[in-house]
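User: quick one, sequence for these C-alpha cells?
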C-alpha cells in the first residue's frame, strides 16, 4: 500500500455546508478548488490508481473551533479535480471515478493552524 500527500493551498474561501451561497458564487469557489487540486496533482506527478482512501485534513490560520466535516464540499471539489473528468470538466486522472467502487472517503480531519490555510489530502492506494 502506497501513500501520497497532496497539499493544496487555499485558492479561495472554504466551501462550507453551513453557508448559503448564491449558485454562481458557489460555482466560482468550487471551480477554484477543483482547478487548484488539478494543478497541484500535476506538479506532484501523482500516479494513476484504481482504488484509494482519502483523508482530508483542514489547516486554517487560527485556533478557533470549527467543524471540519462542514468543509466536505471543499474536499469534494478537490476530489473532482483529481478524478478523470467527464465532459467539459477535465480532471487529473488519479482515479477513474469518485464512486464507491474507486474511492473510500473523504474522511475529514481538523489540522493544526498554519501560516497559509490549506487542505492536505492523504491518499492511500487500496
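Assistant:
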Amino acid at each position: 500500500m502506497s501513500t501520497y500527500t497532496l497539499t493544496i493551498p487555499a485558492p479561495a474561501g472554504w466551501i462550507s455546508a453551513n453557508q448559503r451561497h448564491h449558485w454562481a458564487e458557489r460555482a466560482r469557489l468550487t471551480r477554484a478548488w477543483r482547478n487548484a487540486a488539478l494543478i497541484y496533482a500535476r506538479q506532484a506527478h501523482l500516479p494513476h490508481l484504481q482504488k484509494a482512501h482519502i483523508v482530508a485534513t483542514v489547516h486554517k490560520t487560527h485556533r478557533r473551533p470549527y467543524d471540519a466535516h462542514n468543509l466536505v464540499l471543499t474536499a469534494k471539489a478537490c476530489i473532482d479535480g483529481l478524478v478523470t473528468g467527464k465532459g467539459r470538466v477535465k480532471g487529473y486522472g488519479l482515479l477513474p471515478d469518485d464512486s464507491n467502487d474507486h474511492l473510500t472517503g473523504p474522511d475529514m480531519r481538523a489540522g493544526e493552524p498554519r501560516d497559509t490555510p490549506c487542505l492536505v489530502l492523504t491518499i492511500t492506494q487500496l
